[in-house]
Amino acid sequence: MNFAVKNLSILLLIVVTGCASPVTRDQITPEFYSIGDKNISLAVIDKRPYVLTGDKSEKFEGLVRGAFGIPMTLDRPERPKEERFVDFLSNIIKEGFNDSGIEVNIIKVDKGTSVNDAIDQMADPRFNKAIIASVYESKWDAGGFKFRYQYDFDIYIADIHGKVIDHERFSGSQANKPSESHNLWDMHTIIYRGNLETMFKSPAIKNALLNSGPRP
């Protein structure tokens, strides 16, 4: 990274993180529901094409645009160096289910892992259900007075035998205004929380978690 680009990165980091109120735990923790199984396993898989090719790192969340619209990628500040974006999402989901009295065992899998391979890696008789979330898209583009967030998640629920009970795919594109109170990353964490709540409250996913048999 040359000197000018490095200085621009520092300036953008100050702009998008400064003068903002910190988020509370309630603001970023999804409100889920109690299910019969008190122990479940979870794997979130990065399948974003630009991550699979190596064009973007596994920490990538979105683009920040300066005054001239030039996009730059900045990692989320004050996070563990080894933490991937899917690890960050996994912890958000875990916290939501923990608040509903459910213990969640996070299984870290490599980017691009198939659902079947993930289920095989998650096999454990202590956990009666498995949640597998494939992230085909999650990217925000922040610049000017309108921000846009695109997402494409495929969520699977499997039983203790590794049989898929049901799954549903969720995708969309959201236009958002810059937050007046939160920095860029916290703003989008709140958006992630809201989307995850919607996904897990869908009838297909909720019924799969509440029941043991596959959809007829």
Descriptive keywords:
alpha/beta; Rossmann fold; 7 helices; disordered N terminus
Structure, described:
With 216 residues, the chain is α/β, with parallel strands linked by helices. The chain has one domain: Rossmann fold (3-Layer(aba) Sandwich), CATH 3.40.50. The protein is 32% helix and 28% strand. It is built from 7 helices and 7 strands; from the N terminus they run H-H-E-H-E-E-H-E-H-E-E-E-H-H. Strands 1, 2, 3, 4, 5, 6 and 7 form a 7-stranded mixed sheet that branches. The radius of gyration is 18 Å and the shape is globular.
Topology of this protein?
Layout: H1 3-17, H2 25-28, E1 39-46, H3 49-52, E2 62-65, E3 71-72, H4 85-98, E4 103-106, H5 115-121, E5 129-143, E6 146-159, E7 164-176, H6 184-200, H7 203-210
Parallel strand pairs: 1-4, 1-5, 2-5
Antiparallel strand pairs: 2-3, 5-6, 6-7
What's this model, at a glance?
This protein is an alpha/beta fold and 216 residues long.
Q: Could you say what the CATH topology is called? A: Rossmann fold
Helices, by number, come to: 7
Integer-rounded radius of gyration: 18 Å
What shape does the CA trace take?
globular
Number of domain modules: 1
Largest sheet: 7 strands, mixed
Write the CATH architecture name: 3-Layer(aba) Sandwich
Helix/strand/pairing category: alpha/beta
Distance between the termini: 55 Å
Helix content: 25-40%
Written as H for each helix and E for each strand, in order along the chain, the element string is HHEHEEHEHEEEHH
Strand content: 25-35%
Stretches where pLDDT falls below 50 for ≥5 residues? 1-18
CATH class: Alpha Beta
Strands, total number = 7
- Give the mean pLDDT: 86
